[in-house]
Amino acid sequence: MKQLITPISEEAISGLQVGDTVEISGYILCGRDAVLPKVIKMIEEGTAGDLGVDLKGQVIFHTAVSPAGVGPTSSNKLEIESSIAPLSAAGIKLHLGKGELHPETIEALDRYNSVYAVIPPVTALLGSKTTEKRVVAFPELGMEALHLIKVDKYPAIIGAAHGRSIYEK
Predict the structure, then answer these.
(1) What does residue 115 show for φ and ψ, rounded to 5 degrees?
(2) CA distance linking residue 58 with residue 71, whole number of Å
(3) I need a surface site. Which of 1, 24, 90, 135 has the fewest CB within 10 A?
(4) pTM for the whole thing?
(5) Rounded Cα distance, 127 and 154, in Å
(6) pLDDT beneath 50, residues of the chain
(7) Is beta strand 164-165 parallel, antiparallel or unpaired with respect to 146-161?
(8) Alpha helices for the chain (secondary structure H)
(9) Cβ pair 146, 139 in contact under 8 A
(10) Do the Cβ atoms of 106 and 85 come closer than 8 Å?
(11) Which domain holds residue 140?
(12) Is the sign of the CA dihedral 57, 28, 47, 82 positive or negative?
């Protein structure tokens, strides 16, 4: 089990391979289809600094944050998967979610030395490993707002890295 602490370095990402199991600790961002297009717009407009969170070395978990806990949503939803390349270009190093990504997305991850990890849908387990949470932006979206959470040893499996995917046939 490899330990990753946010912010994640370029070297740590370079050392990950498809199928590696990791535990992620530190602050990570949470967002899904309602908020990620808004974050991409901020990046394009040059206002992402207004989030108050540095995207470099960061993790984004494709989830909403609700009283029931957190659990992955499908990363291959159009609004989510289309955010992976621009977020990686902006410094996101690890995308957490579930589901198979398109080959073009896997290539973009490789281009920006970012990876995708699948996380099992176990909201109770993840809830117990979430130690802090706060809304960073777009509070009007409720549980789908952009959240910053602090995690301790989130388990995940690297699903795409260096041009390869765990889903290769």
Answers:
(1) -135, 165
(2) 18
(3) 1
(4) 0.78
(5) 10
(6) none
(7) antiparallel
(8) 10-14, 36-45, 78-89, 103-111, 123-128
(9) no
(10) no
(11) 2-164
(12) positive
